[in-house]
Amino acid sequence: MTYIYGRRLPDSMADWVRQDLTGKGAIRRHMLRMSIPPALVLAPLWLLPASLYVHIEMTVPIYVWALLMALALNKPWRRHRLGQHGLDINLVDTRKSKRALQMQQNYVEKYGPRPEEARWQSNSSPF
Q1: What does the pLDDT read at residue 23?
Q2: Domain ranges within the chain, ordered by starting residue
């Protein structure tokens, strides 16, 4: 249970950790895990005597902000967890790489290979 929020698992479970952090549904699992703590912190505010409107005003903006931050930081968090378990941190991008390779193969089948002078445009990453 403590693995969910940062504890390291034994090396014998490295394959399971890799699948958990990079496999299908990894982002969904991350978001579900990160939605629980802010809900537990904000739940006591609903015990205060106030109207529904006030309760929503107090809690929903904070909860939505927490979820947006969890979504924005999902890749760095999953990379950190992979590194924590001694796995390659670039595994986070394996699904993206497979899709990009398939798109490139489809492009070559449809239009032919790119000309050599267009090689400098092959990397769209700003970093």
Answers
A1: 86
A2: 2-90
Exposed / middle / buried, residue 60 (Cβ in 10 Å: 0-12, 13-18, 19+): exposed
Q: What is the 3-state secondary structure (H, E, C) of 46-113?
A: HHCCCCHHHHHHHHHHHHHHHHHHHHHCHHHHHHHHHHHCCCCHHHHHHHHHHHHHHHHHHHHHHHCC
Q: Encode pLDDT of 56-108 as tens digits.
A: 999 999 999 999 999 999 999 999 999 999 988 888 877 777 778 888 889 88
Q: What is the pTM of this model?
A: 0.70
Q: How far is CA 40 from CA 15, 27, 106, in A?
A: 31, 21, 47
Minimal CA–CA distance to 94: which of 14, 26, 3, 12?
Answer: 26
Please classify residue 11 by burial: count the beta carbons closer than 10 Å to its beta carbon, then call 0-12 exposed, 13-18 middle and 19+ buried: exposed
